[in-house]
């Protein structure tokens, strides 16, 4: 069985790239549409913040309750709240032994637990994709290091492309077709059901 590599540095880089984008969000931007079906930018930021806090709790051994993952309404300082949550998850992932811990992921189902390496890979691909979502919503560029994107392609390729992607609230839509020699970010997006040309003209 292939061992999932230590993706913590790549995850931190993706998270910090997203934090930098979120810092540019202004109140007038919160109603902007995003590539996440049915979510405006406010809903996406609330999700990002909640996910950071949920994964941080699971890394500490406290994430079994759905309350730890609950999406809360944005406060008066959404960028600051998101940045604080990002620092919490980065710190939690740095803890000794975290790669070999078992993470509770109740959003995947009651009692679901996965190895730390796998849980961090989930968080990583989420923030590569959602960072792009934020950038597209703001009509800003989103550049990540080539090595990070190569790691993200491997993670995206491992995500099952089955009927679970058709369920309401599924994290990813069914895969889209993309050439094998396509640009890495476009390939990642296609593998999780996103079109790199969003919004379509």
Automatic annotation (TrEMBL):
One Pfam family in the UniProt entry: MDMPI_N
Domain of life: Bacteria
Mycothiol-dependent maleylpyruvate isomerase metal-binding domain segment(s): 13-135
Extent of the signal sequence: none
UniProt cross-references to NCBIfam families, sorted A to Z: maleylpyruvate isomerase family mycothiol-dependent enzyme, TIGR03086 family metal-binding protein
Name of the protein this chain belongs to: TIGR03086 family metal-binding protein
Organism per entry: Micromonospora mangrovi
């Amino acid at each position: 069985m292939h061992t999932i590599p230590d993706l913590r540095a790549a995850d931190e880089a993706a998270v910090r790239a997203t934090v930098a984008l979120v810092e540019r969000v202004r109140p007038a931007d919160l109603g902007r549409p995003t590539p996440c079906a049915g979510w405006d930018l406010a809903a996406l930021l609330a999700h990002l913040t909640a996910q950071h806090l949920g994964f941080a709790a699971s890394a500490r051994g406290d994430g079994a309750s759905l309350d730890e993952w609950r999406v809360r309404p944005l406060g008066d300082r959404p960028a600051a709240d998101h940045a604080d949550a990002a620092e919490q998850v980065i710190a939690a992932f740095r803890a000794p032994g975290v790669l070999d811990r078992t993470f509770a992921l109740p959003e995947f189902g009651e009692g679901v637990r996965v190895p730390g390496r796998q849980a961090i890979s989930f968080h990583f691909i989420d923030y590569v994709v959602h960072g792009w979502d934020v950038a597209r919503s703001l009509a800003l560029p989103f550049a990540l290091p080539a090595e990070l994107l190569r790691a993200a392609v491997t993670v995206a390729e491992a995500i099952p492309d089955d009927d679970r992607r058709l369920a309401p609230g599924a994290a990813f839509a069914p895969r889209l077709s993309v050439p094998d020699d396509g640009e890495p970010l476009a390939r990642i997006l296609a593998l999780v059901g996103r079109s790199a040309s969003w919004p379509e003209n």
